[in-house]
UniProtKB/TrEMBL annotation:
Protein name: phosphatidylserine decarboxylase
InterPro entries: PS_Dcarbxylase, PSD-B
Metabolic or biological pathway, per its Swiss-Prot or TrEMBL entry: Lipid metabolism; Phospholipid metabolism; phosphatidylethanolamine biosynthesis
UniProt gene name: psd
Any one GO molecular-function label of the UniProt entry: phosphatidylserine decarboxylase activity
PANTHER family named in the record: PHOSPHATIDYLSERINE DECARBOXYLASE, PHOSPHATIDYLSERINE DECARBOXYLASE PROENZYME, MITOCHONDRIAL
Family annotation (Pfam families): PS_Dcarbxylase (PF02666)
């Protein structure tokens, strides 16, 4: 099939109600029977899950599973930023005059991504990661730093896929999709954790209760299907680990880089 036809199908299936219907089924008891096949299809390590696979009440319950304690150790050096998720890096680099350049061939403005927040000015020449979570991955989102939650915003939007096809062929999906934005104040500066919804993501949920102060590695939110986290660092705040590049896989709690001395 041609690329225009795939784009048309994606446009038609990216309505929020489609994801809501899919999500309603995934939360139903009837969906339990699909857990073993889902795990097999995506190569999910069910032995890593906190509970036995038979103890999950629905496909969504399994998808948002916690892991057994100790499987995601948090990097011990407090001067390091840790990955908030298990993911593949699909974008990494300096923010240039408010622009994220060439994420799968497309440019994004920080202003759009942050829904024209007044805080946009803090990230004009900062640093960014785009972290893609596939259905295989663990889908809970943790804080990359220790700090206070300054502000949070829920931005309504589309639910285009954020996989290779979506990022490359759909128009600026990261700034058009539904987003949950959390601004965190660390001693070294401000960090924005932008959680981007995607096709068949019925919702992005904060943990309850959501504390005002987060520790590195503490649970912050979770996706109810595969999606993306965009991590933004304030100007002159962060230096990435030198070996990280496009296509690198990271685990939650793994070192992403260091805070710069000021």
């Amino acid at each position: 099939m041609s690329k225009p036809f795939f784009k048309l199908l994606t446009e038609l299936s990216s309505r929020k109600w489609v994801s809501q219907v899919t999500g309603a089924f995934a939360r139903s008891k009837a969906s339990r029977m699909f857990i073993p096949r889902f795990a097999q299809t995506y190569g999910i390590r069910i032995e890593d899950a906190e509970k036995h696979v038979k103890d999950y009440k629905s496909l969504n319950d399994f998808f948002t599973r916690r892991l057994k304690p100790g499987l995601r150790p948090i990097h011990e050096d407090q001067t390091r930023v840790v990955s908030p998720v298990d993911a593949m890096i699909t974008g990494i680099g300096d923010i240039k005059e408010g622009l994220i350049v060439n994420v799968k061939g497309q440019d994004y403005t920080i202003e759009e991504l942050l829904n024209r927040s007044p805080r946009t000015v803090n990230y004009k020449n900062g640093f960014y990661f785009v972290l893609y979570l596939s259905p295989t991955d663990y889908h809970r989102i943790h804080s990359p730093v220790t700090g206070d939650i300054l502000e949070k915003e829920h931005v309504l939007g589309k639910v285009y896929p954020v996989n290779e096809f979506g990022l490359r062929h759909m128009k600026r999906v990261l700034s058009r999709n539904e987003r949950l934005i959390t601004f965190i104040q660390h001693n070294a500066g401000e960090v924005a954790v932008v959680k981007v919804g995607a096709l068949n993501v019925s919702s992005i949920q904060y943990v309850k209760p959501l504390p005002k102060t987060l520790e590195r590695g503490q649970e912050l939110a979770y996706f109810e299907f595969g999606s993306t986290v965009v991590l933004l660092f304030e100007d002159d705040m962060f230096e990435p680990r030198p070996d990280l590049k496009l296509g690198s896989k990271v685990k939650m709690g793994e070192d992403l880089g260091r805070f710069l001395d000021k």
